[in-house]
Model the fold of this input.
Amino acid sequence: MSVPPNEVPPGNGPAPSDAFPPPPVPSGTPSAEERQWAMFAHLSALLGAIVTGHMFAWGCFIGPLVIWLIKKDTLPFVDDQAKEALNFNITLAIVGLALLVLSIITLGLGLLIAVPVGIIAGVAWLVLTIVAAVKANEGVAYRYPISLRLIK
Done:
């Protein structure tokens, strides 16, 4: 059986990698509406953090979750970017919870580690969220460098 030179028989392709590259955009470049909703998905985390900041900013993942649930079936680019924003914000919520537990378990001595790490994580969250919003508005499927892929 001969195989054309451009095709690879099943099972003989490259090994799957552990990296999560951005998925290909289904139909060329995203529409203006898709780009705008994807940008809103990222920026809604900032709004949620501002609104609920006095309560440990638990609202930072509510905005991306709502946008993902509403638009996931109709706009594929928004589905991808809202899941990315949601995963990133859940990851940082887990980090914040771990730092809080560390501080409590060590009776406050863990604050020597938790405060600097929390400040670094907060600044990284702010910068990466803004970068992601800008990239999404440009139609680029952005991937946060540190994120657990909990929602797939």
Notes: The mean pLDDT is 84. The two ends are 38 Å apart (CA to CA). The chain is about 55% helix and 0% strand.
